[in-house]
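Handout, tutorial session.
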Amino acid sequence: MLPSTIRAEPLTAEAFAPYGDVIEGPSAPGRADDLAAVLVGSDGRPGVHVLRAAKGAALPLTVARMERHPLGSQAFVPMGSGRFFVVVAPAGEFDPTAIRAFVANGRQGINYKPGTWHHGFLAANAGDDFLMIERAGPGENCDFAHLDKPLRVTG
């Protein structure tokens, strides 16, 4: 049975691993390499975009629809200190009882594995910029699933 409310948890690489990669720089001077598996399929190419958040989101959130990109991964990385919310469910047949929510701390980005169900992007602050890397190329690469009853995400 689908719960009516779930609690958002801090984003960690371990907790997010079933859905993709957490992209985070080093804690000391230096480089952090190979942080995400950017996948575009055999006929795709990486599309690099900048997304400016039109509006800000805050907890509690209401989730009524999820989406997935079956042909490639999709990454979001703050270009400043942009916090954002991540609502996900495992790839495969959509299971609303498996939805989890995370809060990125403003220094973290994420990369969804192909087919991972997720809510549309939810920046905490309007006007924040995010680097977005996703598959560009032929084919239908976005599916939607609607929840029978909206889910509330709290902090």
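The second record follows below. Compare its token runs with those of the first.
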Amino acid sequence: MDVSVILPVVNERDNLEVLAPRMRALLEREKLTFEILVIDGGSSDGTAEAAQRLGARVMRERRRGYAGALETGFAEARGDYLLTLDADLSHEPAFVAKMWRARHRADIVIASRYTQGGVSYGDPLRNFLSRVLNLAMRRVLSMPVRDMSSGFRLYRREAIAGLKLESRNFEVLEEILVKAWAQGYSVYEAPFTYFPREAGRSHARLIRFGLDLTRAAARLWKLRNSVASADYDARAFHSIIPLQRHWQRRRHRITTFWSRGATRILDAGCGSSMIIQSLNNAVGMDFSMGKVRYLRRFGIPLARASSFALPFRDGAFDCVISSQVIEHIPYDDALFAEMRRVLAPGGTLIIGTPDYATIGWRTIEPLYGFFAPGGYRDEHITHYTRESLMRILARHGFVHEETAYVMRSELIMRMRRAENAAVATAPPPANPAAPARSDSSAA
């Protein structure tokens, strides 16, 4: 089935008798297979009976509130795309044709009042408050969407599959967008002209909506600023926090400068960083599907895979980058053996990780853990120093060429795979990646 139309309703019989035939005629004209789902929130005016007469599937919301109605519709829908709109005729059915044509531009298409070309002819006070709330949410959650509260949307099924919704009312619209974006799904805003409802009474209350939205924003802010968010690395490069922005750009400068001129580059564990977005002739690889999904929009060759088993032939690359990866995964010799295997003899390895022998990092990490609990500090499970990492890489046949630091804390080394060096077969020390003593040479 092409599309499922989901209509949350409470006492919308008169509007529904106009909307349903118009929607059916449009979808038939577009030659789409479809279903119309009416999710009833306890109507007392014959809405459910009218919907059944008009050929819609009618069901009661599984839990009370607008969020519960959408959740019910998502669970019951059978279409490859899910269309949500209000049944009060403020969302023009004819606009669905434009949304359908835009479906290849993003995973979620929003009929947007506030993007360039969009217009809203609602009540001036409500328009003003709506714009303020949308602006506030966009800023707080760093979302590149102007109309986050529009419920007129077309979703690719995959973009909302498995979302666990915590909201109760209209703030669910922001929650869906943020959670889908955090998983790497894309959003397109189609300019839309909004007219007020034709009959009945609106069920939205702006003051209550504002309060619900404030509570939702506090929950969603944690997600947007966690490493789980697909665009976390890319956002850090443009951060409003000067230290974070400088740190990211210094790392970017070193890594991209050292890899210039390489013709076959692998960025293993690339995340969504600006490094992979800036490189030429590069393949991005990450274990997180959300980060890989986020990078698809930039036309970068991508693979989802594990650094312990790189899915590339021997000697496939003349440059391999591993930036801020090895500290996030358990130590295993296979990690370094795989880097060497896919790197051509004489090729360059650029590897970066916090240096736990430096005073700088041993000061920064506790502060980071205090201000951002659940962030990078908790995810750093293997601690390297320059000395310990040099030993490991030398054992795997790498020759040191250059070392650089970011803020005297983050270690970045350029290594060369020796032409004919044999890999040591002796087992590694019992704790090869444990924090070393803090001495002046390591710092």
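Points raised in discussion: The chain has two domains: 3-224, 232-417.
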